[in-house]
Design brief:
259 residues, 9 helices, mainly alpha, single chain, Four Helix Bundle (Hemerythrin (Met), subunit A), elongated, 2 domains, Arc Repressor Mutant, subunit A
């Protein structure tokens, strides 16, 4: 299991933004989409977004253009902009790419060996996560804390792979709304299985078994994909109504679980 380690972080495109207000609008709106605050299929109204962020419509309009380029927003004539919705097939395709990209990053990391600081950090992350399951941590706390540790684990493994182009591809592929990556639909047993997978991957990396590390990462990601696709969880989110100016999607709710 892996949710994006940069849920509200910057994409590589942020560095190309020179106008501070455009940068603020882009970063804020991207974070709102990736965190699930702006759900899949929600219509984005410039006036509401400008008021919400305390900006004029010009930087909002430019941010929408950039988010459309990122693939997080789409524009439809006579309707305007809305957050892109992902189907079960989309998720399968995304995770197929993830399996290729992230297993290669782990293979490279295992091949060249972990720097001492990265190794110490990964061992500490795994130990912290293991304690969550051995100390009878309440489920809500377990999910929240494990999500943080999970993100840090994957991020640390990839950051030392030595291939900057591969890292950019991984980051872009992970930039999908939290609406299709919800740890709150995972059982404690599934989270424990994810933890066990992390420990196996780390053992292979430390042993320099690059092929085994890559294979374990591919299996880990495909297991996460199977858990993500959950048509039974497609009921409307009545507990979290959308704010004014963010309209519900036409044709009903997304088919995938939401955060």
């Amino acid at each position: 299991m892996h949710t994006i380690m940069h849920v509200v972080g910057e994409s590589p495109m942020c560095s190309a933004i020179t106008d501070p207000q455009q940068g603020d609008a882009y970063a804020s709106m991207r974070g709102m989409i990736l965190s699930g605050e702006l759900a899949m299929g929600r219509r984005l109204v410039e006036t509401w977004l400008a008021e919400r962020l305390g900006l004029s419509r010009t930087p909002i309009r430019e941010a929408l253009r950039r988010l459309t380029s990122d693939g997080l927003v789409e524009f439809t004539p006579n309707r305007g902009h809305q957050v892109v919705s992902f189907s079960a097939r989309d998720v399968a395709e995304i995770y197929s790419c993830r399996a290729l990209l992230e297993s290669e990053a782990v293979r490279l990391t295992a091949l060249q060996g972990l720097p001492p600081a990265a190794q110490a950090h990964l061992e500490a992350l795994v130990a912290d996560a293991r304690r969550l399951f051995t100390e009878a941590t309440p489920s809500a706390v377990l999910r929240q804390r494990f999500l943080q540790l999970n993100n840090a684990f994957h991020d640390t493994l990839y950051r030392v792979c030595g291939n900057a182009t591969l890292l950019r591809m991984i980051e872009r592929n992970l930039a999908i709304p939290a609406g299709i990556r919800s740890y709150f639909h995972f059982s404690d047993a599934q989270l424990a299985a994810s933890q066990a997978a992390h420990e196996g991957i780390l053992r292979a990396v430390l042993a320099g078994e690059d092929g085994r590390a890559a294979a374990l990462m591919r299996e880990h990601i495909w297991s996460a994909k199977d858990c993500m696709i959950d048509p039974a969880a497609s009921a409307p989110d009545t507990a979290n109504p959308q704010p004014p100016g963010v309209e519900p999607p036409a044709g009903g709710p997304p088919v995938l679980s939401r955060a």
